[in-house]
């Protein structure tokens, strides 16, 4: 009966006002001001929307580049395409979130609110899990024999499938029932219909992912250093540079959001007024989706060439050559493709040449 009473509240059009007023510790007058406020976009939201548009365009460019060129139809580039797709969805979800925020929030019923927040959580979680999937693939690629053998497609789809199933499950838990409806004392100050325990659970999961990525890349670098290569060789240093960029950007973008969510699980709004600035921290986290294509694709010279070719085809780049030249395939395969072909029949672990492919 209790779950039934909770689900019956999902269409209560006055519940959001009640929970926002309690969780954010607002007076009736403050709530009325927020409810009747201007429905235009704040300056911060305009900036975030511009960033989201950039996220959508650059990740769309990655997807088009991977799809249209058969030389990029390899396992590693499919992982990059999956990351680009999740980042594209993250940008789209955040734009939708902005348009349904502010005074419009109080026009929603709880089920619509859960869909609004859950979609953003699913997209952002998929982006993070994609980073982990890439790290796992790279680790397997340098420790397993015949990495690019007949089992590569199966492993690729298993990792991509697990990424999305886990993300949907993680983002869908609140609408399934893990929320604070009928339990006001458990409500989050940042996301008033979410349970503090759920927020703590999400922070713990993302922290474990971060730790896992760190461990995997440290292991990769140690294996590279202990291989037949000299420690001062360029592949080892190139790998270290890539790992440093990936981890540095990941930590810089997500640590503020993790911190604000962790604080939210143990602090009330008036005791921790910084919680009212949570939108800024989530905006910083969204930046990770804009930077991922730069990190994972622009380090490939052939991918850069393909980007220019796609932009030429779209008419966004004046290259000074006929339009039909835009469709000319790459003369040489990318570095990742080269690694794949070169070691397809190899019977020893891949330590060399592919170590700079992240």
From TrEMBL:
It is found in: Cell membrane. It holds the Pfam family 7tm_1. The keyword Transcription does not apply. It is a multi-pass membrane protein. The keyword Membrane applies. This is Sphingosine-1-phosphate receptor 2. PANTHER family: G-PROTEIN COUPLED RECEPTOR. The gene is S1PR2. It comes from the Eukaryota. It comes from Myripristis murdjan. Residues 58-296 form the G-protein coupled receptors family 1 profile domain. GO terms for biological process: anterior lateral line neuromast hair cell development; cardioblast migration to the midline involved in heart rudiment formation; cell migration involved in gastrulation; convergent extension involved in gastrulation; embryonic heart tube morphogenesis; embryonic viscerocranium morphogenesis; endoderm development; mesodermal cell migration.
């Amino acid at each position: 009966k209790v779950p039934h009473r909770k689900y019956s509240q999902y269409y209560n059009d006055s519940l959001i006002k009640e929970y926002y007023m309690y969780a954010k510790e607002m007076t009736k007058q403050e709530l009325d001001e927020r409810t009747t406020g201007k429905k235009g976009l704040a300056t911060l939201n305009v900036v975030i929307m511009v960033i989201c548009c950039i996220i959508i365009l650059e990740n769309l460019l990655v997807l088009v580049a991977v799809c249209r060129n058969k030389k990029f139809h390899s396992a590693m580039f499919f992982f990059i395409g999956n990351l680009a797709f999740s980042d594209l969805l993250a940008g789209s979800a955040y734009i939708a979130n902005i348009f349904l925020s502010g005074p419009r929030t109080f026009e929603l019923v709880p089920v619509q609110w859960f869909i609004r927040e859950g979609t953003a959580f699913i997209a952002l979680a998929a982006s993070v899990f994609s980073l982990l999937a890439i790290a796992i693939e790279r680790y397997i690629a340098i420790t397993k024999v015949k990495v690019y053998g007949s089992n590569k497609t199966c492993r690729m789809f298993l990792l991509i499938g697990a990424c999305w199933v886990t993300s949907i499950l993680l983002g869908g838990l609140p609408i399934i029932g893990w929320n604070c409806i009928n339990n006001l004392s458990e409500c989050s100050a940042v996301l008033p219909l979410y349970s503090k325990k759920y927020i703590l659970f999400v922070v713990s999961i993302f922290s474990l992912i971060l730790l896992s990525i760190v461990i995997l890349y440290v292991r990769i670098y140690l294996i590279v250093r202990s291989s037949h290569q000299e420690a001062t060789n360029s592949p080892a240093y190139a790998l270290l540079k890539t790992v440093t960029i990936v981890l540095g950007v990941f930590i810089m973008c997500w640590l503020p959001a993790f911190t604000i969510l962790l604080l939210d699980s143990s602090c009330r709004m008036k005791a921790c007024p910084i919680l009212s600035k949570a939108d800024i921290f989530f905006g910083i986290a969204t930046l990770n989706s804009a930077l991922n294509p730069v990190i994972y694709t622009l380090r490939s010279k052939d991918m850069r060439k393909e980007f220019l070719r796609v932009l030429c085809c779209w008419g966004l780049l004046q290259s000074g050559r006929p339009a039909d030249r835009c469709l000319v395939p790459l003369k040489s395969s990318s570095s990742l493709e080269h690694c794949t072909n070169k070691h397809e029949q190899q019977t020893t672990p891949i330590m060399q040449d592919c170590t700079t492919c992240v």
